[in-house]
Each structure stands twice: as C-alpha cells, then as structure tokens.
Specification:
139 residues, 1 helix, 10 strands, three-stranded antiparallel sheet, 37% strand, mainly beta
Length: 139
C-alpha cells in the first residue's frame, strides 16, 4: 500500500484535480476489453476509500457508464482517463499514472487476463486472475 499520507493527482491539462487521504491500495492491472479500449492497453489502478477522496477541481470531469454497476471518470478537455467506481463499492479506483507522485505504489496483480490481447506477455511473476481477483469488483 501507498504510505499513510495525502496523495494528489489530476489529468494532463490540470482541469481535473483530486486528493486521496491515507493509504492507497497496491496497483492492480486490468486487461478487460473495456479497460483496453478506454486506455489503449490495460488499466493500472490503485484505490482509496470514497470517504477519503476529494475532487479539488472538477469542471471538466465527465463520467461514462460503461456498465450497469460502475462509472468511468475522465477529463472532458484533454481526455485523460482517471477513475473507475462501482456504485456499491466503498472505494474509488484511481489510475496510478494520474498521481503526482506514484513512487510509493507497488504492483499487486493482474485481473481479467482472459481478455488480454496476445501481442504482449505477462512475465512479472504477479498473481494472475482470468476474471476478477478475490474482493475486487470489475467492469
């Protein structure tokens, strides 16, 4: 987990900014078709409890309902992919690359690997799950 501190981040153009307080979940890589289409490859996300998450600048934030149970957040100006949140989950997933300082994060696992395109291999030794990992909701 990320250290017990405040974390800030945002989109490429700076129109969407956020703060996450406290520890962050280790990074999970999602290879499902929705994440692949949204990011161009796979989704590398950490997470924080929704109660510890604040949008500090959100005028350009857009939410897309790619499924019945979750929303995907992105900047409507620069297109940066930022968030994934299930309606019923207590946390919000944050793209690790959107953090100002992601240096404390560690990789945890790969999920939805059955959707992974065959042009890249997973050789990092992390746990791999064909669908979802125990306790992690997926799109």
């Amino acid at each position: 987990m990320g250290k017990d501190k405040d974390h800030t981040g945002g989109c490429l153009c700076g129109a969407v900014r956020y703060e996450a307080r406290g520890p962050l979940r280790d990074v999970v890589y999602c290879h499902c078709s929705q994440c692949r289409r949204q990011t161009g490859l796979y989704f590398a996300a950490t997470a924080v409890d929704k109660a510890n998450f604040t949008l500090t600048s959100e005028a350009s934030l857009r939410w897309y309902a790619a499924s019945d149970f979750a929303l995907r957040g992105f900047c409507g100006d620069c297109g940066s992919v930022l968030f994934w949140k299930a309606h019923s989950a207590p946390h919000i997933s944050i793209l690790a690359g959107s953090l100002d300082d992601p240096g404390d994060l560690r990789a945890a696992s790969h999920i939805c690997t059955e959707g992974r395109p065959r042009f890249y291999a997973l050789c990092d030794g992390l746990p791999q799950y064909a669908l979802d990992a125990p306790g992690l909701p997926i799109a």
